[in-house]
Write a structure and sequence with these properties.
It is a single chain. The protein is built from 16 helices and 14 strands. The protein is of the alpha/beta class and about 425 residues long. The protein has two domains: about 30-375, TIM Barrel, CATH 3.20.20.150; about 390-430, no CATH class. The strands form four sheets. An eight-stranded parallel β-barrel has the order 5-6-7-8-10-12-13-14, surrounded by five helices. Strand 7 (about 135-140), helix 6 and strand 8 (about 185) form a beta-alpha-beta unit. GO terms for molecular function: magnesium ion binding; xylose isomerase activity. This is Xylose isomerase. It comes from Oceanicola granulosus (strain ATCC BAA-861 / DSM 15982 / KCTC 12143 / HTCC2516).
């Protein structure tokens, strides 16, 4: 045990009236909702990068945090960081964690050294996972921070960078497989372009598709049983992304012939930056059959930037989990806190409290979503709006021709009148469950 958290004990559920900052008020992991404990529904995961690798910088200023595992270019400090990370996972009772390769090991002088360092950290993780029972939700390779990836990874104009990206993914997939990770994520932070003046867009998109096919081929070769996930990202920092949103990713999957092989990991902040709501992206992924997992955070809607704040908006979270529940809930996926402290939140306790608040918010939203779904009134209203499509004439019209549909208008003297969508009534209905 380290002394980073100043002797803080495990976070326990104390109920909504508790005055203890270091207690759950809404999240009781053993509370049974819709036949399962909340911990099995929500499948919380802690992000290694934001919690332990991020140093508090922003575009206008550098590091604000002081952590005992800095500088992060030494293996001894990487080992200490792992000690603190698993201590925090245990304090919070989080069943899962996630990592990028670059979060857990320092960059080596060569690729081989970086790979060996990753494998050494995997040895440590393996022991700590056995000791604590914490599991790996997913691993991923960071192919956006290092200078070599400034023009992309799989979409880079230099084939040597493509090869380096392939080696990075292979190494990280091997470790994820070894640690029994439940998913592997492809997160294309720079898979896009800044200007068409120097970009062959078709070539780059084709290369991104082929890279994805190679990843799936390797998954089957090594016998990895987890899901391959793509995380849609619309911009920031690349101006035009090839994986902009769920719909764009699905188009790539169809072109690659992988719509049955690859799913999506959807982040709330990325959904907003793409001009959508979180629940829109979740519902579309479900409709297309590619829903996998979520990154839970929120944006500051005034900043126009992916601020990765801890969730605190129960109504937003409830609508998101409503779509998750309609999709049948998580299978290999879960709720990963892709969220970070504010750069002025310097204390170790802040790191715990950010997650406590986020877990409480998710629990409150999830329980509201479960009440909505079990009550059925929202689904009844939705079904009633489309009831006309259940009739035989409507079904025949869909199976027939454009002329057949047009003929109905004159044959039946159709003069359709608008019908209220009753949005305000449904919004009031949702508020009853919060």
């Amino acid at each position: 045990m380290s002394d980073f958290f100043n002797g803080l004990g495990p976070i326990k559920y104390e109920g909504p009236t508790s005055e203890n900052d270091f207690a759950f008020r809404r999240y009781n992991p053993d509370e049974v909702v819709m036949g399962k404990p909340l911990k099995e529904h929500l499948r919380f995961s802690i992000a290694y990068w934001h919690s332990f690798a991020w140093e508090g910088g922003d575009p206008f200023g550098g590091r604000t945090f002081e952590r005992p595992w800095y500088p992060q270019d030494e293996m001894d400090n990487a080992r200490l960081k792992a000690d603190v990370a698993f201590e925090m996972f245990t304090l919070l009772g989080a069943p899962f964690f996630c990592f990028h390769d670059a979060d857990v090991r320092p960059e080596g002088a060569t690729f081989a050294e970086s790979r060996d360092r990753l494998n050494e950290m995997a040895d440590i993780f393996e022991r700590k996972m056995d000791e604590t029972g914490v599991k790996l939700l997913w691993g991923t390779a960071n192919m956006f921070s290092e200078r070599r990836f400034m023009s992309g990874a799989a979409t880079n104009p230099d084939p040597d960078v493509y090869a380096y990206a392939a080696a990075s993914v292979k190494a990280c997939m091997d470790v994820t497989h070894r640690l029994n990770g439940e998913n592997y994520v492809l997160w294309g932070g720079r898979e896009g372009y800044e200007t068409l003046l120097n970009t062959d867009m078709k070539r780059e998109r084709d290369h991104a598709i082929r890279f994805l096919q190679q990843v799936v081929e390797y998954k089957h070769k090594i016998g990895f049983k987890g899901a391959i996930l793509i995380e849609p990202k619309p911009q920031e920092p690349t101006k035009h992304q090839y994986d902009y949103d769920v719909a764009t990713v699905y188009g790539m999957l169809k072109d690659a012939g992988l719509e049955k092989e690859v799913q999506v990991n959807i982040e709330q902040g990325h959904a907003i930056l793409a001009g959508h709501s979180f629940e829109h992206e979740l519902a579309l992924a479900t409709a297309l059959g590619i829903f996998g997992s979520i990154d839970m955070n929120r944006n500051d809607y005034q900043s126009g930037w992916d601020t990765d704040q801890f969730p605190n908006n129960v109504p937003e979270v409830a609508l998101a989990y409503y779509e998750v529940l309609k999709a049948g809930g998580f299978t290999t996926g879960g709720t990963n806190f892709d969220a970070k402290l504010r750069r002025q939140s310097l204390d170790a306790e802040d790191l715990i409290l950010g997650h406590v608040g986020g877990m409480d918010t998710c629990a409150a939203g999830f329980k509201a979503a479960a009440r909505m779904l079990e009550d059925g009134k929202l689904e009844e209203a939705r079904e009633a709006r489309y009831t006309g499509w259940n009739g035989e004439p409507a079904m025949q019209m869909l199976e027939g021709t454009l002329e057949d549909a047009a003929a109905r208008v004159e044959a039946e003297g159709l003069e359709p009148q608008p019908v209220s969508g009753r949005q305000e009534r449904l919004e009031n209905l949702v508020n009853r469950y919060l």
